[in-house]
């Protein structure tokens, strides 16, 4: 039984899993939408939404927290705080949507697009 095992492991050690989520989050912030597997999209959604909520705060401490979560990528942090977060100032959550796609041909993995609403 998988009680209290909420997060997906993706068959990777913890540091690789964290790096994967960071890179997916950076790509989503940079491009606005990404095509990935459904499981990865579902796992990256709360990570991104928490960052956008931090971005709505506009304080220096929330900017530093976001920078640490995004591998100190100044371009991504600037875009998050100056472009993305202000769009959702009146929204209480649900900043992303996941659109399911047909399975991938090679390995039949369930694919999805995650994008900002």
From TrEMBL:
One of its GO terms (molecular function) is structural constituent of ribosome. GO terms for cellular component: cytosolic large ribosomal subunit. It holds the Pfam family Ribosomal_L17. One of its GO terms (biological process) is translation. Belongs to the bacterial ribosomal protein bL17 family. Part of the 50S ribosomal subunit. Contacts protein L32. This is Large ribosomal subunit protein bL17. It comes from Candidatus Nomurabacteria bacterium RIFCSPHIGHO2_01_FULL_42_16. The gene is rplQ.
């Amino acid at each position: 039984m998988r009680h209290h095992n909420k997060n997906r492991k993706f068959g990777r050690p913890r540091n690789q899993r964290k790096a994967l989520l960071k890179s997916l989050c950076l790509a989503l912030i940079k491009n606005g939408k990404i095509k990935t597997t459904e499981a990865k999209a579902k796992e990256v959604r709360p990570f991104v939404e928490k960052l956008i909520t931090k971005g709505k705060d506009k304080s220096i401490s929330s900017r530093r927290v976001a920078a640490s979560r995004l591998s100190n990528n100044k371009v991504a942090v600037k875009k998050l705080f100056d472009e993305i977060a202000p769009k959702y100032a009146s929204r209480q959550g649900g900043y992303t949507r996941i659109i399911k796609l047909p399975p991938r041909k090679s390995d039949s993995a369930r694919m999805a697009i995650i994008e900002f609403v």
